[in-house]
Amino acid sequence: MTALALVETGIAALLGFGGGIWASPGLRAWRRQEGQCPSPTQALADMEEFYLEMVKTLARAVDSKDSYTHEHSERASVKARRLAARLGVAGTAARYVEYAALLHDIGKIGIDEAILLKPGKLTPEEYEVMKKHPIIGHQILSPVKYLGPVAEMVLYHQEWYNGQGYPEGRKGEEIPIGARIVAVIDAWDAMTSDRPYRKALRRDVAISELRRGAGTQFDPQVVEAFLAIEESLEAEKERRGNGAAPPAP
Ligand SMILES: [Fe+2]
């Protein structure tokens, strides 16, 4: 199955889901077999789990197209969850941020592979094509009512805090907080991963790059929160390297 077909299947499943989780033949059968009538809490938990699985399927479709993004989306969502919590984003809003981190580059599905996988620097024309990925991502996700806030975060994840980003040149708090979170996580991941045209940056270089972008490209509060999380993860890693027991799951 091609990546695009995978996305279409995922979207069709999500759209079909609008009629309610019990419309899903598999789940209906399971419920019949169990002879249960789900409690509202259970139904909600099942629904959320179903959405998360579909979102992960869509994210895998993106990963399959771009070797760099392999595991990138999954890593991004784990960090997004922690960062959202640290910034006081909770409940459904936090879930949307997690989904946006998983799906932020879904629009790359619509970008020519010759550009997407080009080992060298992009020409100005190619860069203009690449810049369409947030809009394509928004077009893919916005028909799914439940994912409306996620589609918006995807649309604005390349905006800059000072208004110099794209696609609309929004600035500061005009950019949804989820998009500001995804922007920082995405940049960190890009800097600390090997790319077709360069090796991963050293951790200290990536930290100073992120700090340099605070207030221009990135929301400074999000940068500080992100670096605090990174620091505690690093300290945890070192402790474990020194024989300390891993933290409880
Ligand atoms: Fe992006």
Characterise this structure.
- The model is unreliable at 13-26 (pLDDT under 50).
- With 249 residues, this protein is an all-alpha fold.
- The chain is 62% helix and 0% strand.
- Helix 4 packs across helix 10, helix 5 packs across helix 9 and helix 11 (203-213) runs antiparallel to helix 12.
- It has helices at 3-16, 25-34, 40-65, 72-86, 91-103, 113-116, 124-130, 133-141, 148-155, 177-191, 203-213, 220-241.
- The protein contains twelve helices and no strands.
- It has a domain at 71-241: Hypothetical protein af1432.
- Bound molecules: fe (ii) ion.
- Fe (ii) ion binds next to loops.
- Fe (ii) ion binds at residues 104-105, 133, 157-158, 186.
In short:
62% of the residues lie in helices and 0% in strands.
CATH topology type of the domain at 71-241: Hypothetical protein af1432
CATH architecture title of the domain at 71-241 = Orthogonal Bundle
Structural class estimated from helices and strands: mainly alpha
CA-based gyration radius: 19 Å
Query: What is the overall pLDDT average?
Result: 81
Relevant CATH superfamily of the domain at 71-241: Hypothetical protein af1432
Number of distinct helices: 12
Shape: globular
Q: Name the hetero compounds present.
A: fe (ii) ion
Weakly predicted, low-confidence segments: 13-26
Portion in beta strands: under 5%
Q: What is the tally of beta strands?
A: 0
Please report the distance between the alpha carbons of the first and last residues: 36 Å
The helix content, as a percent range, equals 55-70%
Largest sheet: none
What pattern of helices and strands is seen along the backbone? HHHHHHHHHHHH
- Which CATH top level class of the domain at 71-241 fits? Mainly Alpha
